[in-house]
Amino acid sequence: xxxxxxxxxxxxxKLESWLSDMPVDELERRHAAAELxxxxxxxxxxxxxxxxxxxxxxxxxxxxxxxxxxEFAGIEEGVVQRIEALNQFLTDxxxxxxxxxxxIIPPELVxxxxxxxPVMTRIKPPGGIYSHISGIDMVRTKDGFxxxxxxxxTPSGVAYxxxxxxxxxxxxxxxxxxHRVRPVETYIDHLQDMMREVAPSGxxxxxxxxxxxxxxxxxxxxxxSFLADRLGIELVEGTDLFAEDRFxxxxxxxxxQRVDVIYRRIDDDFLDPLAFRPDSILGVAGLxxxxxxxxxxxxxxxxxxVADDKxxxxxVPEIVRFYSGKDATLDNVETWRCREPDALKYTLDNLHxxxxxxxxxxxxxGMLIGPQATKAELEExxxxxxxxxxxxxxxxxxSLSTCPTVSGKNVCExxxxxxxxxxxxxxxxxxxxxxxxxxxxxxxxLVVNSSQGGGTKDSWVLA
Amino acid sequence: MLSRTxxxxxxxxxxxxxxxxxxxxxxxxxxxxxxxxxxPNSGWRSAVASSGTGGLFDEYGIVANRDTVTHFLSLDADxxxxxxxxxxxxxxxxxxxxxxLTRETFETLNQSWIELQSRIRHVDRPIxxxxxxxxxxxEVRNFEGAIWRTxxxxxxxxxxxxxxxxxxxxxxxxxxxxxxxxxxxxxxDVGGALDQAxxxxxxxxxxxxxxxxxxxxxxxxxxxxxxxxxxKEEIPRSLCHCMDVAxxxxxxxxxxxxxxxxxDRLARRMSDKLKTTTIEEVYxxxxxxxxxxxxxENNRLSNEIAEQFSF
Lengths: 463, 311
Description:
The structure holds two protein chains of two kinds.
Chain A: H1 13-21, H2 24-40, E1 60-67, H3 69-93, H4 98-101, H5 107-111, E2 133-141, E3 144-151, H6 158-171, H7 173-178, H8 186-197, E4 209-212, H9 221-231, E5 234-236, E6 241-244, E7 247-252, E8 255-259, E9 261-264, H10 268-271, H11 287-292, E10 297-299, H12 310-313, H13 316-324, E11 336-337, H14 341-349, E12 354-358, E13 367-369, H15 375-387, E14 392-396, E15 402-407, E16 410-424, E17 429-431, E18 436-439, E19 455-461
Helix pairs in contact in A: 3-13
Chain B: H1 3-34, H2 42-50, H3 54-60, H4 66-74, H5 83-96, H6 103-121, H7 129-150, H8 155-178, H9 192-205, H10 209-216, H11 222-231, H12 239-257, H13 262-276, H14 279-285, H15 287-308
């Protein structure tokens, strides 16, 4: 909320005076009302590996996070540039592999990557779009926004973005009169347009889209059903679909119905037991065959995950330069690839100041935060890094921006990040003016993942 | 509509209705218990029998009394027909098909489930079963209200309601069957003051005491009670009413699908039969036999519906 000079930034001034006029118990009361409403509506998620874990709600903080229109214009430009480059990268590595021939990226990082799907070398997704739906995680420092992570495999969180806005409109309608907040509801229109634009060619009438979910036990099930509902399409499980003559059909009360576009929320490995893991019961046998025949479109394309891998992430600025000929306008957080000897040495020497992440993990699992780690933890990571340097990257501990957040009876500054959502079709890549702000609820904590006790805020882009 | 969605809606309707029935059975058992009688546990035994889970209860090898039966019927997670199991399953199905429900409908069901969960979790606080019964009845009314008031009259609505009426008919038939031996043919008296009081309790548990008085304007007569709950179309729990509306919903579905299937024909036949049968004919063939036949036909109807809509 405050600039580096300690003064309240201009965009936050009205909010700050509203906050100081608001009695804390009133804020607390509305906060409780919002959480109760979320629970009643079943806006819940599950954390894997916790006993009694189903049915948690992500804590919602009622104080919004503000992004100015200028800041957002920068984000938008950078995100579009990044996603377009990543789509070109995917087209390239499943095709001519120019970028590998040019020596920009070590080939084994791509070709031996578990997310690389050889079957995709035979399949060209419509319009060269692999990542239709992308979530780009960013943090803001005194120098502006930096990308922390790309999420191109069925990124989640849009339901929270939309529901948080709904909640805020109900709780504090007057705040919206004082601020001109750009609507986020356009996301659904973008999604709908995209699904129409990537449908297989030669369909008579409107293409039929579905959302494919692993089922009600999945941690993000609420979001799956929310999206299907808003899109006005069926939420299907693998058993609802079947393949026949290289087409995909769903079982309905009126008999089989042909499906043209599948927005899948299940991982590559489980999509089709004939093409990937044979023991998968979540997917549809014959789906990849129908996809290869061009009779159905899968969103996002299988094999997209190779482009959002943490090992590839550090090369994204080079990827952008390679395909667009321009520098990335939205830079990465400085990253040391421990696979490179110099970087490994730097990391080992400065471990107590760095954040170290496994390249194949997500959700805040398996990471080390140097400044907060004990001696023993540092030693343990030192050993792991020497053992398997290729498995890790390191980043500086950033002084992240903070945002006022309700904490018990007080309002305190807490660290935040921002996930921007973009939808890409052959026509264009559209970024929603807003996003999901995740907030670390513990004092000083830098980890915002919901699986690690983070919360969310409504994110406002001012017109 | 996805066949799986249709199945979930149908079973959502059945489980909510069953939760209500189990609550009412327990309510009746409490009333039986309060009557002066030689065996205070007989009411609890018949409650278990009426719930259709007598076999499972027998496997437990425990005495049926207030404590064992109330637990078995309300909170026992191993009893597939306990209130807890019914709400669990209904809520699971509601989550599966939440896009087919209105916010109000889902919220009501989710709310009752959350409430029951929190009661179960606070093990240190004993659960007030009578209060639980009241709450369940109330929540089921809220759920039905939400359906009637907010759901579009389309497949979603019809599949839920089909589940409700088929379950309801099954429940009514079971309730009567357990007491069939006291429902004597015309001309014979109910077995004394106790039976009279028990039947009042049964009728009250299905909210039909006043209806009985209005329709027949006389004392409780066993064959009239049977007439009321089997053949009176205007009684919302009667078999006749349930089959009539089941056939109507199937007709609505057919109008949408332009397909006549075996379920349509069976529902129509069952409904027509109940409309033309007299209570004398029922007694001639034997009430117990009549009810057993109905329960198995109703079961068949449920299967035919699943078959016809491929779930």
